[in-house]
Amino acid sequence: MRSIHNNLNHKFANRLILSLLLICLGLATGMARHIIGGEMTYRCIGENGNSRQYEVTMNLYRDCGAVNGAPFDDDADFGIFRWDSTRYYFVDKVSQHRGSIRSIQPVDDACVVIPPNVCVEGTSYTFQISLPVINGSYFITHQRCCRNETIANIVNPGAYGATYMVEITAPAQQFCNNSPAFKNFPPIVICVNDDIDFDHSAADRDGDQLVYEFCAPIAGGGRAGSNGFPGMETDCDGVKPSPVNCPPPYPNVIYNPQYNVSSPMSGDPVVSINPNTGLITGRPDIFGQFVVGVCVTEYRNGVRIGAVQRDFQFNVTQCQNLVRAQVEADTIIQKNYVINSCGSFTVDFLNQSYQADYIKSYDWEFDIGGQKVRNTSRDASFTFPGLGNFIGKMVLNRGSQCADSLDLTVNVYPDLSVDFQFAYDTCIAGETAFTDLSKTGAAGGLQRWSWQFGEGGTSTTKNPRYTYPVPGTHPVTLTVVDANQCKESLTKDLPYYPVPRYLVIEPSSYLGCVPGNIFFNNLSVPIDSTYEINWDFGDGTVGHDISPSHIYESPGTFDVSLQLVSPIGCKTQAMWKDWIVVKESPQAGFKYNPDEPSNLEPVVNFTDESQRAARWFWQFGAEGTSTLPNPQYNFQDTGTYLVRQIVIHSSGCTDTATAEIDVKPIVRYFLPNAFTPNGDGTNEIYIGQGNTEWMFDYSFSIWNRWGQRIFETSDPYEGWNGRMNNVGEDAPNGVYVCLVRYTDPRGNAHEVKGFATVVR
């Protein structure tokens, strides 16, 4: 009886950026996550007789600037096919988790501004496979949509994606060959009319001869399917084609008329690749996005033993100067920086020019009294002869193609001083009066005032009045601006620790049930934890929180009082008569029998153990209810049920007790020890007995003494008739082993062994 109670390294000749997105061409209104490149390689990691073990790696790259587009699949599908000189045969499918997503940073360059929203990501999928050596090639493939719709050199680029594939030829299998692997990540953004000089060579572990060429990227997938819709897995035009249904060969992309495999980009000279070194050179002369494919074929002793292919997206854009001239100033009008000096004839300039690593020289110059005065330090200082207006200039990297400059105007004005005072009642909360005492020599006098009262309050009045909502030492700041736009600020501390003018308390409830948990919300201002706070809750207990929660353990009517003392000794207090009323409550509790109900014993008896209850309400999961003190309930199915007892006192107060009751599914099953299959119609079949409707993944088998299986079935209602597989010759008299395996409704595996004696 149970009782319950409550409870890449690369180089350009001039201004080349590594990046993945064309920003300055106006080809797209925003970035989308599209596939922009990838390749697949393999490495032979072992031999086992006539089999080879390979580690296959696919690198994949994408745009990453917005929520729409091609994500990196958590699990990517790879197809393995074999070619026997006549056709492709499906061998296997591999699903592989992706690696970590890595950000690819652009290469730094002195004269190039990298667009701020360039975003490049890459990931890898690596898995191992074992393949028997065959007289033919294996092909490992992956297909995924989609490419950027704004690619200029291929037809309808956004309608399909890419196929990444690697071939393991028959000679490569014999040699336990490793494919070439590209050394560097391609430059995706290129400066228009600048020379490309990119090393796209590959490394080969086996020292084979490598030959490079431009080749057509392979198309793959399409927009026919998407996540959650039919066609995604089975349609070869879907977003993620299944390799089971989509074997090679795959089509190449179709070039627009002015482009082809050997000339995938416009240039003068044309962009090309050296077949021996893999060096890509040329000078692109048209803005746009271009997808480029590079194939590297490996030869050993003059015999082709394999090839790998990479495709990637070039963006050709206008590059900008990275160096920018900038100085801290009061006003900037185009490239003219205006600095106001109020009361001082010496001006120190704070140089904010960037990028400092690429700035080789600074050249400052002012016309002072008809003389050219110069300075070559980064942060220059000039002394002017008096009040007035002075014109100058700053030049960065004078004479360089990475130069920049700005104009300077210095206004030397009369002095400005700022001051103020304040007055307030230090003991009773109220307004604080502020008085401005600032002075200026400007002909137009003071024009603007800006007050910050230290806890968030502000004002633009010359002499404001302000009521603080919170106590504390508040840093008050006054900023004044005169007719010359000279600006000065001053901060003073204002200690503000009065007591509230009125005590305002809002209880969460004036009426409760034992235990009565009442929250006293203190709305009085100003007050904080530095004050002495004394509560009397009327039941013999006290508290010291600003807004306390208090539990009344006994019924009754209670007075509540509060006293406050500020950090400087100011006091206030109040008392509320007969404020809180707390009524008596019941206490819920019950027990039930049997302790472990099941499908064999589904009826449960509940016994009330509550105290001071006048009424009862029971909930048996989502199935049924009762208002009896001691109900009985028949659970219609196995599983876990939350049983809830709610008891109600004559005062109207309630209490609740709960229990989780597990109605277990029990399987009872046994095997007989003999049967007589002699044709007399009695005891002819050997079969187990029990509640088989609760048995899953059922397996029943008979074995002779030599370990030979002579009968097997997965039907719990089919038995053995004493013959070989129930259709052959009679089994000899004797003892046979019976083995039964099944899974119960909760997934637990069971095994029952017995002996079946055949007697005829």
How many strands appear in the DSSP assignment? 58
DSSP strand (E) fraction? over 45%
Uncertain segments are 1-32, 226-233
Biggest beta sheet attributes = 8 strands, mixed
Structural class: mainly beta
Number of helices: 1
Q: Overall mean pLDDT score?
A: 89
Distance between the termini: 51 Å
Helical content stands at under 10%
How many domains make up the coordinates? 6
Rg from Cα: 43 Å
Shape: flat
Features:
760 residues, mainly beta, Immunoglobulin-like, 6 domains, 8-stranded mixed beta sheet, 6-stranded mixed beta sheet, 1 helix, 1% helix, 47% strand, disordered N terminus
Notes on the protein architecture:
Strands 2, 3, 6, 7, 11, 14, 18 and 19 form an eight-stranded mixed β-sheet that branches. The longest helix is centred in the first third of the chain and has 6 residues, at 170-175. Residues 1-32 and 226-233 have low confidence and may be disordered. The relative contact order is 0.08. The chain has 760 residues and is mainly beta. It has six domains: 35-317, no CATH class; 331-413, Sandwich (Immunoglobulin-like), CATH 2.60.40.10; 416-496, Immunoglobulins (Immunoglobulin-like, Sandwich); 505-583, Immunoglobulins (Immunoglobulin-like), CATH 2.60.40; 589-663, Immunoglobulins (Immunoglobulin-like, Sandwich), CATH 2.60.40.10; 669-758, Immunoglobulin-like (Sandwich), CATH 2.60.40.
